[in-house]
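INFO  loader      accepted 1 record
INFO  loader      residues=114
INFO  predictor   begin
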Amino acid sequence: MASVIIPVLLCFFLGPGAGQLYNREYKKGAFFIVVSLAILIVAGVWYYKALQPYLPADLSAVDPAAMQQILQNATGQITNTQTHMLLAFEAALTALWLYGCIDAYLVAKTKGRE
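INFO  predictor   done
INFO  writer      dumping tokens
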């Protein structure tokens, strides 16, 4: 029973692909990891570009306390389209994470690790 739970816990805590790697499904695990990282990178770049108009040109000259206030003001001005994009990134990662956990469990169970 414990060997069925291990890949699920790996996927749950480390992210999509970790459970697949434990199950020795290296191609599928690498695919999940690459897709997860790609979504995170695209989301990070998109978020940076969305906040860029609100940020000063030289970030090194800004006081850290002032930067916190600048970011709070910028995030308060997010439009509905931007909110939908953030939700889309979150939904994609959540779906990939859930699928990874379920797949890790089913494969471990199928391989007879009960």
